[in-house]
Design a protein that fits this description.
Largest sheet: 6 strands, mixed
Shape: flat
Strand content: 15-25%
Helix content: 40-55%
Oligomer: single chain
Length: 979
């Protein structure tokens, strides 16, 4: 090949390599552009710079150390091995050493940087917990931030030592090939006599026989190119055998290298067992304790300490064994270590079964104390406020009226029916979708009110798959729906406060001025805004309204950027589309979960983000958790996870229009969050930087509350004897949801907590004793203001039975009127379902509320048809919550709940209804019976509209009858307990 061709070939190779490098860096450049747009460049470069800061020096140091190490090997080799067959260029030997060193440095440096970068940052920025473990007296921060790093470093050092041992072998093989020592003496060929003076039976050195066979001393050839027809390494023809003196010197050189490596290896193994003793505190033991128990502390811990000593002894014996060239001396201590490990495991098991188990409570007592205390702290359960709750059922009408903040927010709508209703009535177009229903609270008509909200997003699978539709035209969702949770229309559907497109608000306090949703739960596609193709904004009658994006988000589509993103997205249209101009911007990472994961993957995010409307704008709020698996003595919250520490320390707020994504630290006492804040000072903001209007919509996440509630079923017991016997174990209460029995989930609602001055937004869950259905406690998490995150436990009396939700469900099943309706509905082809049961503490009493849904065969919309209230052995079953309240607590009770009851339309008033107060009791009874018969007939015929009207008539007649019979008593109801 001519020089010109060589140059051309080299040039083509360089261009091709540069092209491959460019392709490999496309994602890096586009990610950098996105982080720059977000204002998080320091976050983007934190990982890269940390890896470079520690990886490059590691590469340089390890390469240099390895190179000089190999050079010292070569020098010793040259010094002790003489008589070369031929001279080889010295540069070739050095190049091999440099190549080996470089490859070793690259692999080791990359591994160190990739595995340790985040642990290094945590180690350097660790924040003390100011809590010490009870065994080794180390701050908990040692386990959370430092132990993993030290363990990884030790493991990497052990790997490096093993790698050096492999490099030793490889480089010696290279030396054998490149510098040909006289390993073999010339011996007689097949037709020659053996040179005289040779003692054929000379005894070989201890390792000589082994190495002799390895290097071809049997006359059958050498693994390095020799064979029976020629000497190894190109020597003269004829049989060969090892030069024992030369081989002995070679073994001496190799032994020196292996001495150093062996000693270091056993020192690292000793350090490994030193670190391993700390892991006893956060691993499951063989007994009842999570963490180190009696057998672990008295057997396993001492086994580890013995192995530390044995490892040090093994280092000494390794050197002695190599010096004496006795394999037995080298291996005896490692074999003993294996035996000690096996015997240690057996001893732990025997002690556990023969000594601990017969007297477990006494032996494990101090360790159970540790387990209880540290688990409670790890899940933030140590400060739960416990209040005795009488549940004495002594409510008066005055009590009800004084708790209208609670009564007026009793939720009779459920998430699933509401979501189905929104999708069928508020989607407007097939390409819109409501993914989830979020619960929140707002000031509505001056009252603190609980609401349902849902975002109307584009369903990207429902629009045309044309590139222009997917990426330029259908760019955003539009608006939200909002409804009260405590009221329904006459047809049993959610009572909408914000609906339609554009959003129409019936609430003076809420006005949405920026309804476009460019970032959401359904947003997956990248989009290009400010193009020549106008964006679809929202449908309007038979036509559509179009708009142009007015926000700041997006990466400018310069030619270079268009090229980058065309490669990244695999779309040539981004590069050639005439709709895209220099004013256009590409918007990526529009899915809110992908967005936060890309920015801060070291946090765990709640799977249920929720949307809020504040000052006319829409914001997504995501709860983020800091976690660890290394908290001493803390038990993981499930058998399928190792996480044993969790805090909801970070709230993420995302502007649904502009995409601004901000991280706020809400728990300033969480050392994990504070450590992350030190690592990423430009990422995390203090909660005081969040506006009050947005802060008012933060809520205590139900996922965290569920974890805490489940842990607390066991760890509410702080007395070790009670805990060990599980004498007071709890379960989450069960309910019937739909038609199936299931464990209850935490539910948000507005409640005036007994003993407090005003109603507030809370979430709660009831407990029952293990194996029983009666209720034993109610756990509440507060969400508002300075009380945010406070947990309150209402402890019920243990000297009498307080019905739990499952027992109330059984009472409902036994009610003949309710059972009759369920049967009739089922026989008519309709489907009924029970909603969530709410356990509501009011003053010193408990009431239970459950909505009943009906879905007819010819309608796919569930409707709230009945509301059940249980209180003090009494069940009421009415069409509306207001009627149920009046029926349970007396006429007029609901007057504070609603300003005006639904009229039911023009058909609500039938002949004979008006002026019922002039009828006597007998006439009212006849009319009530007639209305009931008509309702049953309408129900059997599937005429649900008439059915509802007849039941309204029946309710009016019965209410009038109750009013007439109790008129003389109503003046004293305020002071008389409701039975």
């Amino acid at each position: 090949m001519t020089k010109k061709k060589k140059r051309n070939f080299l040039l083509v190779g360089i261009i091709f390599a540069a092209f491959l490098l460019f392709l490999a860096l496309v994602n890096f450049f586009t990610d950098w552009l996105w982080f720059k747009e977000m204002g998080y460049v320091s976050v983007f470069f934190k990982e890269l710079f940390t890896k470079l800061i520690y990886g490059v020096p590691a590469f340089v140091v390890l390469t240099v150390v390895c190179y000089f190490y190999l050079m010292s090997m070569k020098k010793g080799y040259y010094k002790k091995i003489g008589g070369y067959d031929m001279e080889e260029p010295e540069k070739k030997v050095n190049r091999v050493a440099l190549l080996i060193s470089g490859l070793f440095g690259i692999i080791a440096g990359f591994s160190i940087a990739n595995k340790l970068w985040f642990q290094i940052l945590q180690f350097m920025n660790s924040t003390d917990f100011n809590i010490t473990d009870p065994i080794f007296s180390k701050d908990v921060s040692f386990y959370i931030f430092r132990l993993e790093f030290i363990t990884l470093v030790n493991g990497i050092l052990i790997s490096l030592l093993i790698a050096f041992a492999v490099i030793n072998v490889i480089y010696y093989l290279a030396l054998f090939r490149l510098r040909k020592p006289q390993f073999f003496d010339e011996v007689a060929g097949p037709n020659e006599e053996e040179p005289s003076g040779r003692n054929q039976s000379r005894q070989q050195p201890p390792f000589g026989g082994m190495f002799g066979q390895m290097f071809g001393g049997n006359g059958q050839g050498s693994p390095f190119g020799g064979n029976s027809q020629g000497a190894p390494f190109g020597g003269q023809r004829g049989a060969s055998r090892l030069n024992r003196d030369t081989l002995s010197r070679l073994i001496g050189i190799a032994g020196h290298q292996f001495r150093v490596l062996g000693v270091l290896l056993f020192l690292m193994i000793a350090f490994h067992y030193y670190l391993k003793q700390f892991t006893l505190l956060y691993t499951s033991s063989s007994g009842v304790v999570y963490g180190a128990g009696f057998a672990d502390i008295n057997i396993t811990l001492w086994v580890y300490r013995l192995l530390i000593v044995l490892s040090l002894v093994a280092a000494v014996m390794f050197v002695l064994g190599l010096n004496k060239r006795k394999l037995k001396t080298v291996l005896i201590v490692p074999v003993i270590m294996v035996g000690v490990s096996i015997l240690g495991g057996l001893s732990t098991m025997l002690v556990q079964n023969l000594i601990v188990s017969p007297d477990e409570i006494n032996k494990e007592y101090p360790y159970l104390e540790n387990n209880i205390a540290f688990t409670r702290y790890a899940y933030d359960l140590q400060d739960i406020k416990i209040r005795e709750f009488a549940a004495d059922n002594t409510l008066t009408t005055a009590d009800i009226l004084n708790n209208m903040g609670t009564i007026s927010n009793i939720r009779i709508n459920d998430y699933e029916p509401a979501l189905k209703f929104y999708n069928q009535t508020q989607s407007i177009r097939l390409y819109y979708e409501f993914t989830d229903v979020d619960v929140d609270r707002y000031i509505i008509n001056g009252e603190y009110t609980q609401t349902f909200l849902s975002a109307r997003e584009i369903d990207e699978t429902a629009i045309g798959d044309q590139w222009l539709n997917q990426h330029l035209k259908y760019t955003h969702g539009y608006g939200i729906t909002l409804s009260r949770v405590d009221k329904v229309t006459d047809n049993g559907q959610p009572d909408m406060l914000i609906d339609s497109i554009p959003p129409v608000s019936d609430v003076a306090e809420i006005e949405i001025t920026r309804p476009e949703i460019y970032f959401g739960e359904n947003s997956r596609n990248y989009i290009v805004v400010n193009t020549d193709e106008r964006e679809f904004d929202y449908p309007s009658g038979e036509s559509n309204v179009y708009s142009e994006y007015e926000g700041d988000v997006g990466i400018p589509m310069t030619f270079f950027n268009r090229l980058l993103f065309a490669i990244r997205e695999g779309s040539l249209k981004l590069l050639v589309s005439t709709n895209i101009s220099s004013d256009s911007k590409i918007v990526i990472n529009r899915n809110i979960m992908d967005r936060v994961q890309t920015i801060a993957p070291f946090l765990i995010y709640d799977e249920d983000p929720y949307i809020a409307t504040v000052d006319g704008n829409l914001y997504w709020i995501i709860d983020a958790y800091t976690t660890s698996s290394y908290y001493p003595y803390s038990e993981p919250f499930t058998n399928t996870t190792s996480i044993n520490y969790i805090r909801n320390s970070v709230k993420v707020v995302i502007d649904a229009y502009n995409g601004d994504t901000s991280f706020y630290v809400v728990d300033t006492e969480d050392p994990v969050a504070l450590t992350l804040q030190k690592i990423y000072p430009d990422l995390f903001h203090n909660i005081c930087d969040l506006s009050e209007s947005v802060r008012a919509h933060l809520r205590y996440p139900n996922n965290l509350f569920t974890i805490q509630a489940n842990v607390y079923t066991k760890y509410h017991m702080t007395d070790v004897n009670v805990f060990y016997q599980n004498e007071d174990g709890w379960n989450i209460a069960n309910e019937i949801y739909g038609t199936e029995e299931t464990a209850m989930v935490p539910t948000y609602y507005i409640l005036k907590i007994p003993g407090e001055e005003k109603a507030e937004f809370i979430t709660s869950i009831p407990y029952t004793p293990s194996g029983k259905d009666n209720m034993t406690a109610l756990l509440i998490a507060r969400n508002d203001g300075e009380n945010y995150g406070d947990l309150v436990l209402f402890q019920l009396p243990k000297d009498r039975i307080i019905y739990g939700p499952r027992q109330i469900e059984a009472r409902i099943n036994q009610d003949t009127r309710i059972a009759q309706d369920f049967t009739l509905w089922s026989s008519a082809g309709a489907t009924y379902a029970r909603g969530n049961m709410f356990v509501i503490p009011i003053e010193d009493s408990l009431i239970y509320v459950e909505p009943i849904y009906l879905e007819s065969a010819n309608s796919s919309l569930p409707e709230v048809k009945r509301v059940i209230i249980y209180y003090n052995e009494k069940i009421v079953y009415e069409e509306t919550l207001a009627e149920a309240l009046d029926a349970m607590f007396g006429p007029g009770t609901s007057s504070g709940y609603v300003e005006e009851l639904p009229s039911g339309g023009d058909d609500a008033e039938e002949p004979g209804v008006g002026g019922t107060d002039t009828l006597d009791m007998e006439q009212l009874a006849e009319l009530a019976n007639e209305a009931f018969a008509n309702a049953v007939a309408a129900q059997q015929n599937g005429d649900w509209t008439a059915y509802g009207q007849y039941l309204e008539q029946l309710a009016e007649y019965l209410a009038q009858m109750v009013t007439d019979t109790s008129a003389a008593e109503t003046d004293t109801l305020d002071a008389v307990p409701i039975q």
